[in-house]
Amino acid sequence: MIAVKVTYIVEEGYIDENLSRIAGFLADFKHLDQSRFQYDVLHVKGSPTFVHVSRYKDQEVQQEILGNTIFRKFQEERDKRLVGEPLIEYLDINLLRSL
């Protein structure tokens, strides 16, 4: 299993558009096999900060999700309006399984 957390900040004027684009790709993801991945998005209240946490069964699924047309368009548009670089963290979920 692969788990990734991405934290980023967008320009203040882009928050609503970012939320709309997120809703778009999440709706499209509902047509995919949900047993193979989980994708959650959080918005830090009152700020332009977003956190995406994703879990994939394997690299094949990860590439399928990251290659999704609507998701790619979201990324392209978001990247034009980023404040700084996104923080990408690979999470160790094996530790949680042993608890």
TrEMBL record:
Keywords for this protein: Monooxygenase, Oxidoreductase
GO molecular function terms attached to this record: monooxygenase activity
Protein name as it appears in the record: Quinol monooxygenase YgiN
Lineage of the organism: Bacteria, Pseudomonadati, Bacteroidota, Sphingobacteriia, Sphingobacteriales
